[in-house]
Structures are given as C-alpha cells and as structure tokens.
Amino acid sequence: MLNRCSFILIGVLFLFSVKAQVQSHLKIDSVNSSYDEHSPALSPDGETLYFTRSGHAANVGGVIDRGDIWFSTKTESGWSKAQHAGNVINHPGLNGVVGFSADGNRMYLLNYFDADGQGGGSMRNGIAVSTKLNGEWQKPERLQIQYFSNNSPYLGATINAEENTLILAMRSYLSEGNEDLYVSFKQGDDTWSQPQTLGNVVNTYGEEWSPFLAADNETLYFTSNAHDGLGGRDIFVTKRLNGSWQDWSTPVNLGEGINTKGTERDYFIPASGDVAFFSTTQNSEGFGDLFNYALSDAEKALQESIEEVLAQEEEAEMPIENEKTSVVVMTFQVLDKRTETPVDASVKMSYDGKDIDINTADIDSQNKHFVMSLEEGASVEVSIAAKGFLKYQETFTAGSSVQSMSDEFGGSSVETFYLTPEEVGTKVKIENVLFNRASANFSNPEVAKRQLDEIVQMMESNPGMAIRLEGHTDNRGDARLLKELSVERVKTVRDYLLSKGVDAERVEFEGFGGEKPLTDNDSASGREINRRVEFVIIR
C-alpha cells in the first residue's frame, strides 16, 4: 500500500474540520422520536423520505423487531408525521432502503423475506427490489448475487443511479476483520457478480458500515469505527482511483461539523444533490435521529478542494514499502472420489492467521460449489470432515486460474477436493501415476509424486487406516512378465509412500498383471484405462 505524505492528509483534515464546522445541519423533528431512526433515503422526486425505525410496536415484529421501513411526505410546512410503510416491503427482520431507480419506480431494499419461511429475514439473504405499480410497492424480489455470503447480523448497501453497481457492507470470505465493503456488478443475464473486496485502504480490522456511492460513481461515503475518528463511529469519504474498484484514496473524516462522540452513519445525498441526510446518536431524543443539511457553496467548494488534494496526493507518493496484494477468486467443490457426486462436508480453510468455515450442506445449489476470494500466492491449509469419509487435509497455494466471465462458474475455475469413503473394501484409482513403457519408473515423476503426496497426507490424517496397493497392466504380452511388471510398479509406489514416513505395516501390495481389466484391451484407450494403480482400504 502506498504511503501518502502526512502534510497533505493534515491539509485535507483541516479543510473538512474548518468548513464542515460552519455547516448548519437540522434535526428533522417531525420524523424523529424516542425510537431509533436511521438509514434515511429520499425518493428521486424529493417528495418522500424513507427511513428505518427500530423498537416500535407497530413494526411487523413488534418492539423486538430490528427495524422496519417508515416514510414521511413533504408538505408546505416540512415533513409529515411518519407512517409505517406496510407489510409488503417489511418483515420481522431488519429492513431498509438501499436506493432507487432514476424514475423512482424501483426501490432496492436490504434483505429478502420469503413468506414461505425460506428467507426468514436473515442477513444472509442479500438485497431485494420492489417495483411500484399503481402507486403501490409490490412484493420484493431477491437479486441473484453470485456466491453471496454474509456472516454478520448486519448488512448495508448502496446502488448507483444506473442500477448496475452495488456496494455491500458485510462480513464475508476476505473480510479484514468485521464488516467490510464489497462491490458487485450487474451482469447481462440480470444476475450480479460475486462481491469483491474494496481492499485494505478502505477496509480495516474494525467495522465498515452504511456505504453511499455518490452520483459521480467515484465518491464513496461510509461509516467506520477503525479509521481515525472523533467518536464511536464516524462518517468518512474516499474516492476511487484509476478507474479501479480496489484502488481508493485514503479515507478522510468529514469533521466535527458532522461527526461527534456518538455514532454517525447512513450518509445519503438524493438525486437533487443539494442536501445530505445522515443519522446520529449525539444529542438525540432516543437511540438515533435523522438530520439533514444543505450542501452549500462552501461544501461544494470543499469537494473541489478534495479533488485538488487527491491530485497532489498522487504526485506525492512515497516509495512502495509493501506491494499491494492481488486477490484471486477460486471456486471449490467437495466430491465423493468414487461417484464424483457432491458431499455434505465441513470445510475449514486457514491462511495468514484467518480461519474460514464452510458447511457445504448449507449451500443452496445442486453442485454445492462455493467461492473464496484469496490473496494470490497465499499458502492455504484446508481440512475437510464428512460423515462416512476419511478426513481430508491439504495445503495449496492460492493462484489465479480465471476463465472468461461467461464461464458457468462465474469467472473462476473449479478446484475439487475428493473424499474417500471410510469403508473397508473401498477401492480408489490413483490418478496420474503413469509409468514408462515396460518399466517401473514414473513417466512424469513430478506429477506422480504430487498425486502420491495426497495419499501420504490422507494417511497422516487417518492414522488408523491401512491400505493395499494393487497394480494392473493391460494384457498384451507374456502373462508372467506382466504380473512381475505390475508388482514392480506397485512397489515403486509403496517405496515412495514409505520414504515420506508412512509405516510399512500400513501398506500392503499386490500385482495382478492383466488379470483384472476394467474394459477390453482392443483399443489404445481401453488399454490405457487398464494400466493403473489402485488402493483398497483394508482397515
């Protein structure tokens, strides 16, 4: 990550501190109450203010409800008394407005609720969209975000005016600590790409919440409790650089005119661009109240100043101390080695001090694929346990093997973990262990040893297991010589296992020559299938 000159950052902070202090932000008295109000969102026509209210008895889930959407309409004297937005767009979980289409006829919502009980209001369900018909909001439909995974009870989001870019606040595969910010893009088939982290200039070990992407598609406001702040949580601003969604300017605190010792969150600038809304717990009537303030000429001048400072910041880059790490997206699956069908398994991946747990039984797809965003080159330890299968352990290096974005698996190749059934008599072919013609020497030692290392690891993970190695040839030639050749080949495999520390008493061996073909020997392909080494679990 590039270090920036400190005097420039101080200059930015000074601009925000001085100019933000003169802003006059006003509490929206007709909307605020003794309950918790947050997440304001103004409709594109400027006539309806939506927000989330928690703890109110009128919420779908009553006083224990985490929050329903309420609204207030604009009148000649200000904002009307707030009303509950109804049960169509609210459910017992946390609800909130993410944003709108430019014409105001589509409203994007936090979360998705399935009335049949499949959704349940869990923050794992992502984002939904409701369409206005005859002036009424219709039942929300969930956005199909590829490999969406949120391991937090919190979810936040913002959508741009073009409705093709989502920024999500959640805890997922590559989170730095708690909730981080991710970006997802709308695809040609109306699905959304797998969320990618915004990187560690924006994301921290703490909590990054309530993103808001401004109309320029470059300026991002968000709340954090880990960047340099004035209180519990403050609002910060950053700009993306070089057209990238992983390259951002150093986040800057909006200053004392906005942020306090309390919690400030949910910054929102409506389509008109002349006002900003946010929520704060400082000096409020309850948990959180809504405020707004005019984006005056001073504030707009400040934005221009930020642009100038960012340009200087780029010119003043210090020598690179730590190269940015690249992120690769890898898709995995866990299969039965015999049948190549998906297995319900508990998968733990560990790298760089992080542990990531996945239960494939929870994956709602037929093929049970799951996606990980990993730092390229990271050494990743994987441990897999499944009922009825031997424990699996492996260490691999995260690498980029990305295919085209039209690929079936969303742009990444599939890495497969094969599990061996934990049953005496189970027979498994050892793939890619091939020999030179009429020889017991590996034709490709590097590939063969890599394959056999997996068996070594399996035996280390399952110390009570013993196997019998069985060698086979095709049937072309003298039967006695073929049997001797199969014995020599299987001994080569056994010797390698023993050289890696496997106890000799755990590895029996036998050669069968061409006595047990899997198919006919009339073709080259058939003979290749019959030339094989297998192992059988004997205890």
TrEMBL record:
SUPFAM superfamilies, A to Z: DPP6 N-terminal domain-like, OmpA-like
Residues of the OmpA-like domain: 424-539
Transmembrane segments: none
Native source organism of the sequence: Roseivirga spongicola
Entry keyword tRNA-binding: no
GO cellular component assignments: membrane
Secretion signal span: 1-20
Top-level taxonomic group: Bacteria
UniProt protein name: OmpA-like domain-containing protein
Keywords: Membrane, Signal
Residue ranges of coiled coil: none
InterPro entries for the chain: Bact_OuterMem_StrucFunc, OmpA-like, OmpA-like_sf, WD40
